[in-house]
Structures are given as C-alpha cells and as structure tokens.
Amino acid sequence: MRVSFVALVALVASSDVGAIEPSESDMREAFASDLRRGVQQMLAFVEQTQGQQAVRRLHEARTDAFRLGEFRKHDCRQSKDKPGHICEFAVEVDTVAGTIKKSMAGRFHIGPYGLAYDHDG
Q1: pLDDT band at 98, cuts 50/70/90?
Q2: Which of 22, 60, 85, 94 reaches 20 to 30 Å from 112, CA-CA?
Q3: pLDDT at residue 113 in the model
C-alpha cells in the first residue's frame, strides 16, 4: 500500500495540474476573493494610520462595500513565465459611488486555497 501511495504522489506532483483552463465561475470567485482581500488590507491600513474611528466612518459610508455584478470570461492562454493562465475578462463592480465596468486581464493559478487571481500577472 505504501508503494502505491508514493507512486500516486509522484504522479500528481509530476502532472501539469495547472494546465487546465479555469472556468468562468472559478475565475469570478478568485477575482472576488482578491477584491475582498484588498478591501480588508485597505481597512487595516486605515486603522493603523488613522484609527478605528476612521474605519467606522468608512463602514457607515459603505465605501468598503461592493457587489460583484456581471463577470464574463474572454480569452485565456497558458502563462509562459509563471504557473497558471493569463485570462482576459470583463467585470462589473457595484459600489456606493456607482458601477465600475472594466475589461482587464490577470493570471489565474492554483493557490493554497484553490484558484487564485493575480492582477500583476
């Protein structure tokens, strides 16, 4: 049994798991997770530099809130430099200031918690 487990681990490690192109729904979730993480980092920075009262004002004004609207996957290609795929997509993000519509590209790759989005490619 131990030999077959070792062989299975070696097979998985040598296979190109990242070669599978991400689905639109997986890309949407990875993008949303990255956006949530960015908002949390911004709030932590505001708290550190301006205090908890400034964070409360942001919450009250709902400037930290967003809703991911439409998300459309376009072209994807295997990344040449790093693991994963470089994918183009269109997204709508609803904020208190209005809807942001943008076409963009980024790298989607397997991270520690599943598919991850890296806007720097």
Answers
A1: very high
A2: 94
A3: 86
Residue at 90 is within a domain: yes
pLDDT score, position 119: 85
Residue by residue, DSSP assigns 21-32 as PPPHHHHHHHHH
- pTM recorded for the entire structure: 0.79
Report in angstroms the alpha-carbon separations of 109 from 21, 46, 63. 9, 30, 29
Query: How many structural domains is the chain composed of?
Result: 1
For 54-65, the pLDDT digits (tens) are 999 999 999 999
> Would you say residue 13 lies in a domain?
no
Strand 85-95 relative to strand 66-78, pairing = antiparallel
Q: What residues make up the domain containing 60?
A: 20-118
Residue with tokens 């795929």: 85
- Residue 104 and residue 87 in contact, taking contact as beta carbons nearer than 8 Å: no
Alpha helix positions (H), the chain: 2-14, 24-50, 52-61
Residue 109 lies in a domain: yes
